[in-house]
Design goal:
This protein has a two-stranded antiparallel sheet. It has two domains: 27-236, no CATH class; 249-438, no CATH class. The chain has 438 residues and is mainly α. The protein is globular, with a radius of gyration of 22 Å. It has 18 helices and two strands. The chain has helices at residues 2-48, 51-72, 75-86, 90-125, 130-153, 155-159, 163-185, 191-199, 201-213, 225-248, 251-259, 262-274, 278-295, 300-327, 329-334, 344-369, 376-391, 399-428, and strands at residues 429-430, 435-436. The longest helix is centred in the first third of the chain and has 47 residues, at 2-48.
């Protein structure tokens, strides 16, 4: 009998291992394809846009990311956390998603009111005409609105691990972006044209996401007050951190935007394209790891083990990437073109910064899917105080100084979030039965 149980257990483990390997291979191959296409599109834009136009393109894209973060404010984390509790109930999951979409629309208005004047100021500061500034703003708004619903509509298939349709949609989106970029950038080498070419395919993507979401969630359900309160609880804890992230998440761009030259913005933007490969792992985390982590039973030992396994894997991955960049900076830089040659130290520093951003971001996402969010009134002042002290000793008017500042920012955030995760686990779990008490 014992031998039979052992065989069954071994068979179950083998099946789980095979399932994980299959999901990872499918998702990673799709994401590698997506990122390869994205890198090709990015390199085309870098090489064909004049340096000044590419600087404006970088500013506009950075602000687009900021607008999306502000309009989310933690809503997606709240929806994932609530959805993880009812993911097998189509009607209840539909209520959660509808409530999230309702809140997103409300938050989008405030995001636009804040971001648009700020972006106009930066564009004008770096030499954009009023006409060019207006064209860039109008090209951003559709991309912003499409991104809002897209990041919520993929939660239902992620929770059900219906990964293959998601990958097909994302690959198709990337191919469409590349095609539109090729059709427009050679004839119209302007920043706003490049942004429009990137944003149009999201319309089709959202339509497809809505179709596959309907398999798992009844989207005809309306918003619910109870779910809204639950999601807003996460938002209240997350929003201050999201606002802070709008600054710290793109700290290098913001520093050179205010204190550096237009050429420095273009350099940082171009170098950032080289680290897009890390987006593969960010998307692997959001597609495979985070939903499963959210669904874990309230077992203290299991949650800690999975968390440490993920962190260890990311640290090992980051070490391999950094070693590659350290050994071969010249060939990597040559991809960008001769106007960016010689940025060997900068590309290594940016890689360190990007790896730390990936690891710190993973702690934030994993924690928030379990409703574990560091108190912003503690997190933000501590980070700001340390940053101000560091700010005094760094020449942030040059790219290297801005990159060093971003490295220190991400490292500090990672240490704080990592520590708070274990503090929360120790405080809120009953050690006798390893189940949550709060």
């Amino acid at each position: 009998m014992r031998e039979l149980v052992q065989r069954f257990s071994a068979s179950a483990k083998s099946e789980r291992t095979f399932t994980w390997l299959k999901l990872i291979s499918i998702t990673s191959s799709a994401q590698i394809t997506i990122q390869a296409i994205g890198i090709i599109s990015g390199i085309l834009i870098i090489r064909l846009l004049p340096t000044h136009e590419y600087a404006l393109y970088t500013l506009a894209n950075t602000m687009l990311g900021t607008m999306v973060v502000l309009a989310d404010g933690g809503i997606s984390s709240g929806v994932m956390a609530q959805g993880g509790k009812v993911w097998q109930n189509k009607q209840k999951l539909g209520v959660v998603l509808s409530t999230g979409l309702y809140l997103r629309r409300k938050f989008a208005i405030f995001s636009l009111l804040f971001a648009v004047p700020f972006l106009i100021y930066l564009l004008r500061y770096h030499g954009a005409s009023w006409l060019m500034s207006s064209l860039l703003i109008f090209s951003l708004v559709p991309a912003f609105l499409m991104a809002l619903s897209g990041s919520l509509l993929d939660i239902a298939p992620k929770l059900h691990q219906d990964i293959i349709p998601l990958q097909k949609i994302q690959v198709s989106n990337s191919v469409a972006r590349l095609v539109l970029t090729c059709l427009t950038i050679f004839t119209f080498p302007w920043a706003y044209i490049a942004i429009i070419a990137s944003g149009i395919p999201q319309l089709w993507t959202n339509f497809q996401l809505r179709k596959i979401s309907k398999k798992f969630a009844d989207l005809s359900q309306g918003p619910d007050i109870k779910e809204r309160v639950a999601i807003l609880k996460v938002v209240k804890r997350t929003l201050p951190g999201s606002i802070y992230y709008c600054v710290s998440g793109q700290i290098t761009i913001w520093i050179v935007s205010f204190f550096g030259s237009t050429e420095s913005i273009a350099q940082v933007g171009a170098l950032s394209r080289l680290t897009m490969i890390l987006t593969v792992f960010t998307l692997l985390l959001s597609s495979l790891i985070e939903p499963r982590f959210s669904r874990l039973p309230p077992d203290r030992k299991l949650i800690i083990n999975r968390f440490l396994q993920i962190q260890g894997g990311l640290l090992l991955l980051s070490g391999c990437i950094l070693l590659t960049v350290y050994l071969f900076p010249g060939p990597i830089i040559s991809i960008l073109g001769k106007q960016y040659a010689g940025l060997h130290t900068e590309v290594l520093l940016l890689t360190v910064s990007s790896c730390l951003s990936l690891i710190s971001g993973s702690v934030y996402k994993l924690s928030s899917t379990r409703g574990i969010v560091p108190p912003p009134l503690i997190l933000i002042p501590v980070l700001l105080l340390i940053q101000v002290l560091f700010f005094v000793f760094v020449d942030y008017t040059h790219v290297q100084g801005a990159l060093l500042f971003s490295i220190f920012t991400y490292l500090t955030a990672w240490i704080f979030r990592f520590s708070y995760f274990f503090y929360w686990i120790a405080k809120n779990f009953n050690k006798k039965n390893d189940t949550a008490t709060a």
